[in-house]
Every structure is written in C-alpha cells, then in structure tokens.
Design a protein that fits this description.
The chain is of the alpha+beta class. It has a domain at 110-170: Orthogonal Bundle (Helix Hairpins), CATH 1.10.287.470. It has helices at residues 3-46, 110-138, 144-170, 215-218, and strands at 49-55, 57-80, 85-89, 97-98, 103-107, 172-174, 179-184, 191-192, 197-214, 226-230, 238-246, 256-264, 275-292, 297-299, 302-309, 312-324, 327-331, 339-343, 354-359. The termini are far apart.
Length: 371
C-alpha cells in the first residue's frame, strides 16, 4: 500500500475514534442527567412540609351584639398658666403634635431673676449670721432660744429663694402628655394672668369609644372584655379594644349605661367625635365550632382551613362567624377534635405530605366542651 492509501486509512480511523468518543460522552451525560432527575424527584417525594397544628374545639359562646358609640380622646386638657407674666415665646400652633415636656410657651423672667439674686444674697447673709450664732451658743454667749431665732430667719430666706425659683420654673409652660394642639389661646406679647388658658390638647395615640349599653346587656360585661370596633367613616378599618370603664349610673331616660372601650390609635386614623360600631359578646349562648384565628387562610375572596388527614393536607372551604378572644367560629361540615394547621398553612398545597413540628391548642380555660 502506498503512502496515499495509508493516509486515507489513518484519516478514516481517526474520524471513527472521534465519533465513538462523542457517543460515549453523550451517553455519560444522558445517564448523569437521568440520575440527577431521579434523585431530585426522590428527594422531593421524601420532603414533608413542617407545620404547627391546633385542635378544633366545640364551645359555648355568646352571640355578638353590635352597638353604636362615639370616639373620645384618651385625655383632654386645657393647659393653663400657673403664674402671671408676659409671653415671650409661643413655639406651637394648632394641629401640632407635641411630646410630654415639650415647651408650649415661655414667660418673661427678668424681674423674677432680679428677685432671685436679692433672695440669694439675703440667704447668704442669714447663713453667715447663723454660723456666728452657733459659735456664740457653743461659748454660752447666747441662749438656745436666740439660736433658734437666727435659724428660723435662715429657713425663711431659704424658702424665699425656693419660692422665686419655683416661680421662674412656672414661666416655662410644658405639655403634660403626648398629644395634639387643638386650640391656641395666647400669642407672643400677651400678658397672661394666673389661670389663663394657653392651649387645648388631646391625647389621641389611644382613644376611648363611649358606648351606651342597654341594661339587659350590662350584666354580661366586665372590665377587660374584648370588643371589635368599626368606623363607618374609615371604610373597612376595624380595631380590637378592651373595656376600661363601666359607669354604674344609668341614663335615667334611655336606661343605658356608658361603657368605654380603649383602642390603639398610633396611626392617628381615628378622630375624636367619630361614629363607631362596637361589637360585644353579650347575646344568647350558642354552641360553636372554633379554631385559632391563625388557622384561617383567605384567598381569592374565599376562606379555607387546612386539616391534617393521614399525614397529608386536606383543604376545606369554610365560612367564619363569631370571634372570641384568639378564636374564631368556622361554619361547615367540620367535626371538633380534628387537627387544623395554624403555622405554615400559607405555604402548603392540598394533598401535600406534612410533618407536624408543634401544637398550639386553645387554652383549656376558654374551652367549654359539651357534655
């Protein structure tokens, strides 16, 4: 075979070896890909979503009754001047939010500071006189009654100094609590007499809703009871508050008792004087199926709960009803005693495998199971 034939044979063998090599690499990566997919699928099948569950219970609750009320500030005050004087500073205006201790107004203190210098000088002289009197008394040069007279004089001068210092302190008028300025009653350059108004303030980080409660319901209420309050002017906004006062004296004409519900208002959404609708658990007793509020998942305008059945998730649509503390009534074909997912329920799917990592059963003290 000549050289050209050898070269042709060598070229064919080289191409065949290259082809075998490519086929081998393709087979290796194909097998590796199938192995990885099978392993990932196996791991996915082995994964169980961690969840916390709670027991569904049956208990007797009172039917909620809705009553109308009016919003009042937690505190309201007209801040007055405790001493007469000329206003030299008035740094606030109507609508301002101020913190407790913040300066509302300052009065001129020039004449008081002059009086304070004189009072301190008199006190200093009285102190010197008292020290000399003590030496004379120890040397039997004066009687004890004479020493007492000098000491009394010193005490009187000390009291005078303290009185002037107190008057100077009163010239700075500060906010008695955190709140909002609603009215201004003075301005720079105005002379204020003792007792004159400076500003009006409302404390609105919390509010009180005053609800006139009919006498047939008042027996079921106590301080500390929870109430859900809505505000028609604010649309869907609702707040949960607690009863802080129950007035024992009824309105003689309406036969209603004023009940006050305290509500958080740190976002300043609720305004004084607003109309409110408060719901209390004061109606007739009824048996209800209850779960922890966290067991409800809302999606697409519907409400669901996720039960644990044989280690898997079972999605069940429900309707909700009465709210009692941290519990809520569920209406549907659900039996008490079953476990419902209350943590991790927003991430599970119907039929998914789960692993229970904890329980959050309702307090036994709140439960009243039927006999």
């Amino acid at each position: 075979m000549d050289n050209s034939g050898l070269r042709t044979l060598y070229s064919h063998n080289k191409k065949r070896h290259y082809l075998f090599l490519c086929v081998g690499i393709l087979i290796f990566y194909t097998n590796a890909l199938f192995f990885m997919c099978d392993r990932s699928l196996a791991q996915e099948q082995m994964f169980k979503a961690p969840v916390v569950v709670s027991r569904i219970i049956e208990m007797d609750v009172r039917k909620p009754v809705k009553m109308v009320g009016t919003v009042f500030p937690l505190r309201e005050s007209i801040v007055a001047c405790a001493i007469e004087g000329l206003v030299v500073e008035f740094p606030v205006k109507r609508g301002d939010y101020v913190k407790k201790g913040q300066v509302l107004a300052r009065l001129n203190t020039t004449s008081l500071e002059i009086r304070l210098k004189g009072a301190k000088a008199d006190k200093h002289l009285a102190l010197i006189e008292y020290e000399r009197a003590k030496e004379l008394y120890e040397g039997d040069a004066i009687s004890h009654s004479e020493l007492d007279e000098v000491e009394t004089k010193l005490i009187a001068h000390e009291a005078k100094v303290e009185g002037v210092e107190d008057d100077i302190g009163k010239c700075t008028i500060t906010a008695p609590f955190d709140g909002r300025i609603t009215e201004e009653y003075t301005e720079v350059g105005q002379w204020l007499k003792k007792g004159d108004s400076v500003v009006s303030m409302l404390q609105m980080d919390y509010v009180k809703v005053r609800v006139p409660v009919p006498e047939k319901y008042i027996q079921y209420m106590k301080v500390g009871d929870e109430s859900e309050v809505g505000f028609p002017a604010l649309g869907i906004i609702k707040r949960t508050g607690h009863i802080v006062h129950i007035v024992s004296q009824a309105d003689k004409r309406a036969r209603t008792f004023p009940v006050y519900v305290k509500i958080d208002n740190k976002d300043d959404a609720i305004k004084s004087g607003m109309f409110a609708e408060a719901t209390f658990e004061t109606g007739s007793l009824l048996s209800a199926t209850m779960i922890l509020k966290d067991g409800i998942v809302r999606r697409g305008g519907m409400e669901f709960i996720y039960l644990t059945v044989d280690g898997k998730v079972a999605e069940v649509p429900v309707q909700t009803g009465i709210v009692h503390k941290n519990l809520i009534q569920i209406i549907g074909d659900i039996k008490p005693g079953i476990d419902v997912i209350v943590r991790g329920n927003e991430r599970v799917l119907n039929g998914q495998d789960i692993q229970v990592t904890g329980r959050m059963d309702p307090d036994e003290i709140d439960e009243k199971p039927k006999n």
